[in-house]
Amino acid sequence: MTISRLTLQNFRNYPQLRLETTPGFVVLSGENGAGKTNILEAVSLLSPGRGLRRAALKDIAFEGGAGDFAVAAELDDVQLGTGTSAEYPERRKTRVNGAAVPTNDLAQWLSILWLTPAMDRLFMEGASGRRNFLDRLVTALEPDHARNCTRYDAARRERNRLLADEYMPDAEWLDALDGQLANFGSTLAEARFRITEALNKALAMTDNGLFAAARLNLDDDELRNQSALLEALRASRQADRAAGRTLKGPHRADLTVFHRTKDQAAEKCSTGEQKALLFSIILAHADLITEQRGSRPILLLDEVAAHLDPRRRATLFGQLAEKGGQVWLTGTEPGLFEDVPDHAMHFQVAEGRVTKR
User: Fold this and answer.
1) What global pTM score does this model have?
2) Residue ranges in the chain assigned as alpha helix (H)
């Protein structure tokens, strides 16, 4: 999984940009606000979902442009593209080798993982962010998961709309929606459980002292049974109607992360320990993808080098180089990347311009 050429048009602060890249490290250095993270965001949009910033599509388009944007990438024998039109700035379209496809199909071609400073708040904020994080991990291993999440959310929105109707909902229609939710929801919950278990095994075997060892726990075991979920949905109809929304289901699940050595919940750990726990999860997951899909995922590591001491920084770069794949790194100072292998590609980013160093 390697991008050989990345092309942007009307994307954030880039009216146009073309980068030729190779396997290994792609290092982007420059001052804050120069546009380094924008490039990583563009790469992240070559996967299902809303990208590493989870931004509204209309906010991505180049200010002063026509209102559209495009991101394209070339792999060995595949061309991927995604973006919007000026006519429909909130409707994303995706193409593979020139043919229109659902955006969720991007997961069939690329697995992309990222770590950004904004993710430092993952353990302190609400459960929805942790669910989104876990669903990205699942999709990177099981591409069909993205489509199943979309189907589940569509059925839930329709059920909520029906429950909020001032008139008594049609019982047969509600039965059908509950059946869909139980089907999609149990499949969704089972996939989350499967990947959580696999990650815990991988994390238990890769404790090398570089980062804090993580352990994951998912609180929706009962939702994996389709019959039990269907029964819970039917039993909850009156409460759901009063609330105007569906109160039970995998959309309410939460992922809890623990510091395995301390047996302490991540939200009670220090900021440094929380970042280390995230590192350990991302790196273990990359190993899982390599093992199960046969190729290394693309890693997007935004401003991570500045938060590591020199020893850990050198060790991390050495491990990433040994494992292979394509790793995109950003940082304000080129000196942060002195321990990156010599074959790495270095780019200087300044005011929306990117030049090879």
Assistant:
1) 0.89
2) 36-44, 127-141, 144-163, 171-205, 226-235, 237-243, 271-293, 310-323
